[in-house]
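Researcher: Watch the backbone:
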Amino acid sequence: MPEGDTVLQAAKRLHNALAGTVLTRSDLRVPRFATADLTGRTVLDVTPRGKHLLTRVEGGLTLHSHLRMDGSWRVYANGQRWNGGPAHQIRAILGNADRTAVGYRLPVLELLRTTDEDRVVGHLGPDLLGPDWDPSVAMANLLRDPALPLGEALLDQRNLAGIGNVYKSELCFLLGVTPWLPVGGLPAEHAARLPGLARKLLEYNRDRPVRSTTGRRDPNLFVYGRAARPCLRCRTTVRKADQGDGSRERPTYWCPVCQRGPAPSPGS
């Protein structure tokens, strides 16, 4: 599941494969930009911003993509077999003399002026893995709506950019509170820890092929994906429920003993 660390890794792969080279192949398979041709242009850099990827090319253009739940960018040596999915799932192809980057199942793909990047990422809060990271601003953003459940506030990229559903559940477990606790009810000592702990988790995993919050490879996560299994700390059964506003519900995991605060109503 792509989160800030996964997107950073994707940006590094794309940057290493494409930056400083001239594109010899360009194919954007979305109706609005199907006729756009980037061949002959040099790729300047590939920059992550929260969960967004910005591929900048000469001429003042940026290819903006977002992976959401199951999108991915794969890089292949020319002549290597593409194995990221069936051809009908390919949304973008960028190639040079040596390598080809293929974007699969990209729900967001658009070409815009680099000077207009703020239109697609300007709403984001401080990036947990970016140069703009500011823990005080991130915490102030989270507290703007004190009645909002913490899990929902953490997923709102306008507050802080980079946390997805996995880190939401894991961060709440490490703080010892349920994802349904209103942000305003977070004890002061936990609020003081939250921004630094969130950044520590993503920093720890920024170069790891297998994400870990436990410090181990197996089991690598405390609660996420462990429904009906024993909590690693107290052996109580980990629970799972959907959290969100109905249109954007996300499976959420927590330990009813290790984490204090409200729980969803039965049947959620």
